[in-house]
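User: I'm putting together notes for a lab meeting next week and I want to include a structural view of one of the chains we've been expressing. I don't have a solved structure, so I'd like a prediction I can at least talk through. The sequence is below, exactly as it appears in our construct file.
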Amino acid sequence: MRILIATDAWRPQVNGVVRTLTSLARAAATLGTEIEFLTPDGFPSMQVPTYPGLRIALPNRGEIARRIEAARPEAIHIATEGPIGWWTRAYCLRHRLSFTTSYTTRFPEYISVRTGIPVSWGYAVVRRFHNAGAITMVATNSLRAELAGRGFTKLGPWTRGVDTKLFNPDTPAELDFPRPIFAVVGRVAVEKNLEALLSLDLPGTKVVIGDGPQRAELERRFPSAKFLGEKTGKDLTDHIAAADVFVFPSLTDTFGVVQLEALACGTPVAAFPVTGPLDVIADHPIGALDHDLRAACLRALTMSRETCRAFALERSWERCAKQFLGNLSVFKPGLLPRPTPVLAGSSPVRG
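Assistant: Thanks for the context. Below is the predicted structure for the 351-residue chain, given as structure tokens.
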């Protein structure tokens, strides 16, 4: 099966959406499925004024159509609600093609925090976007219930996985900081709620791994915290494995793949009892959830690192890929149009 996934989030961005899509493609390939991506690559882009450091693609209708038809997909999935997502949606509706979507980012909340636009307005827009699809895939049961309550229809499950070969506890970084170490990983931006951790009175050291528009401000306000910048690959793994507790202070993530990555490194999680942590941690002895984040951090110190690792080993990307592919049963062979002819001397540009 050939699948085309349209996404506005793509490398060099480092976030859960990009990691999920690239991991999905690798796992799907082992199952005999080819995934191609329609990404911002090759399109002009612009800086988002309310989101420092983020650029969005500026695609056009004709080029989106050419890329879709050149890919000759048997199924189309739209992963994001940005310009690429909207243009791909429009193409599918214009040609009466089924497509699936996934709800991976709480854009209504993010936009409201940065602009003051009411959350209800944002949900009206994204609800319209997703309800046109055959299935909207969501990562957790709690998010599914929440979106159903907001009028989203045709919701289906698509959980997340973790690369337990990359994320492992074998070679923790040597961090010469007072113990215990409470680490957080992610974009240093207001929607990640890092201040909730940094403002706590905790023993040991608070460590921030990542970069973003709020870093300079938080470094000034919390000089005792250690800001290590962005880490990737084995370097990231080793730093997570070196922490005593992984803190996930976000209130707006739909899942938080980084929680599974921390658990694969043997590091217990402390978080608020909200969508994502409620579904990942629940009542398993691998972390602590509490409206009092300090209490959660201290309780997580008592968790078994071996139990955390064992929990992660049961959550593979192959399982995630099989669930994703199962949701594509809505598609029937032969629904998609043939490619439009390419003029001599030109070639379609793919993302």
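A couple of points you could mention at the meeting. The chain has two domains: 2-161+318-330, 181-313. The longest helix spans residues 16-30.

User: Perfect, that's what I needed.
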